[in-house]
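Dear Dr. V.,

Thank you for agreeing to look over these. As mentioned in my earlier message, I'm a first-year student in the group and I'm still getting used to reading structure tokens, so any feedback on how I've presented them would be very welcome. I ran two proteins. I've put each sequence directly above its structure. The first is here:
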Amino acid sequence: MNQPLAGFAPAPVTARMENHGNHMLKVAMQTGNDLLARVGSMVAYEGFVQYEPNPPAVRQIARDWVTGEGAPLMKCSGDGLLYLADYGANVVVINLNGDAISVNATNLLAFDAHLQWGVERVKGLAKFAGQGLWNTKISGQGWVALTSRGKPIVVDCGGGEDETYVDPDALVAWSPNLKVKGKRSFKAQSLIGRGSGEAYQMAFSGQGIVVVQPSEDSTDRLRVRG
């Protein structure tokens, strides 16, 4: 192999999910240990891997996606190595190890199919933003891969009295046991002609983490117009 290219070869497998660089996910596939991944995220694979778009388990839960929360998913099964990416976004790999995480569906890349998951309304925000905010909650023993538009920051809320405030358009994920409430504000763009209307921050408190990306989701998830 040409020496300059040798440094880009994949490292030996040491876990079910691993990063290959900052922008690609490597998954060790095994028969009977299926994966749910964002449709279109496969960039390469080795071995024998099959794909089933919108499998029955996903269609059943997708009934809750009338709010727009949710991502089209495919079931991946087989043996080999699977590589996933999402338009060059940073990839964050998490071993839940019995814990849970609440994820913005646009930042959900892949997760073990045996994990418990579903779409839930975020409590404490409906009075601020009409129908409120819906997120995908995943829990159990297994792996989850998230994406971030740029290198994220993971804030440990620490269980103290101080609250952590996040623009919901930059929010990737958080610990679902955190308390969440909304706070009104005006975005700077409302003052310079790019839009109008109130916007909100989400205030988190309690024991847990919040994952924030350095780029706002253009869908503006909690804006109230009128």
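The second protein is here, in the same arrangement:
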Amino acid sequence: MRSITKRQAAPLAAAAFVVLTLTGCTGPVADGEAAEPSASVGSTPSPTPTSDARTDEQQLPLPVDEIADWAKTAVPRSSDTTGMGTLSGWLSQHTSAHQTSQFSSLPAGTYQAQVACRGAGTITVTAGPIDSASSGDPVTCDNSTIAFDVTVEQPGVSVTMDLAGDPTIYALSLERTA
């Protein structure tokens, strides 16, 4: 039988650990009980909303499945301009009170942003270059629709939304103007 060195054994041990873990094999647990697999192969079930998130959803001014349709009319876009399309959803303290979206494929230039929000909360929006400070003052949306300009000198736009207060729906669009 051929022996192996410690240097050769380390990669083999790591590979064996990965194979055993991915197939659901784990070491014994205290008192001889079987261990639960630490990783699984295949699809992962989506998380079940907490009761707090369900309560937040009930406070929204529209059912969740109607937000996308509302967004199309709340922040309409011209069909012949460069932009990101329409981003919509809802924010709450129990789901996500802070959201950052980056649109790295948008070319440098000036964009008109529109944000609409409905609900009892206030959403503060900042927009600007990716990986840099916002190029303008924050915009506060309080059950309203607001348009503002965003200028980026390099490709890519980052938009951050922060919620204060109760669950609120939002719609956001960016269209290139120059």
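From my reading of the second output: Helices lie at 6-22, 51-58, 67-74. Residues 1-47 have pLDDT under 50 and may be disordered. Does that match how you would interpret it?

Kind regards,
E.
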